[in-house]
Amino acid sequence: MQYGLVHIAAGDLLRAEIASGSENGKQAKEYMEKGQLVPNEIVVMMVKDRLLQPDSQENGWLLDGYPRSLSQATALKEFGFRPDLFIVLEVNEEILVERVVGRRLDPVTGKIYHLKYSPPETEEIAARLTQRFDDTEEKVKLRLQTHRQNVEAVLSMYEDITLKVNGNLRKEDVFAQIDDALTKLFEDRKLNSGSLAA
Ligand code: AMP
């Protein structure tokens, strides 16, 4: 990944747990199928353990899909993890649903495609693409409901470090907005650590 950060997606951790066949995975799947938040007893420790791994500690991390509730944000703080930036991707519902329904995963490379906006490069890849069990119009609408119930409370924890990004634009233009902010952040940090070391 650009910037060298470790990408930690709460949903990916949960899907790996389901794939492992564990009891936690079985329980998590029931909530995920309803578009509801998986209970903190399962999610919080999972994310904490991943953040504590040496690669995250050394390179820094990008947390994706976490925290999704005030209690998760509080837990993160209590464990001593403080994000430098909180990025909110704002996308119109219609666009969001279209992106989710057309989303596909290449299980071999882990790359995410979109049937219309980012189609697979070859027939061979196209033939092996898979779809998440919750990437249907019905399920994404349930996830959006859950999101609306929690977003204000989470935002209130990060007011001073929030960056709102227009997610309706093309992928390249969305990335440019985030890239600008991250580049500034890393430059500031270089300056600061330079002065600290001196
Ligand atoms: P995502 O991969 O981010 O779209 O998440 C897929 C599903 O995993 C969500 O609809 C939730 O059921 C569950 N999930 C992901 N992140 C969290 C979280 N931080 N807390 C609780 N459940 C989560």
UniProtKB/TrEMBL annotation:
Name the Gene3D superfamilies for this protein.
P-loop containing nucleotide triphosphate hydrolases (3.40.50.300)
Which UniProt keyword terms apply here? Kinase, Nucleotide-binding, Transferase
Write down the superkingdom of origin: Eukaryota
**Gene Ontology MF term list:** AMP kinase activity; ATP binding
Q: What is the E.C. number?
A: 2.7.4.3
Question: Pfam families from the entry?
Answer: ADK
Q: Which InterPro entries match?
A: Adenyl_kin_sub (IPR006259), Adenylat/UMP-CMP_kin (IPR000850), Adenylat_kinase_CS (IPR033690), P-loop_NTPase (IPR027417)
Name the catalysed reactions: AMP + ATP = 2 ADP
Q: How does it assemble?
A: Monomer.
Q: Which family does it belong to?
A: Belongs to the adenylate kinase family.
Mind telling me what this protein is named?
adenylate kinase
Q: Which organism is it from?
A: Salix udensis
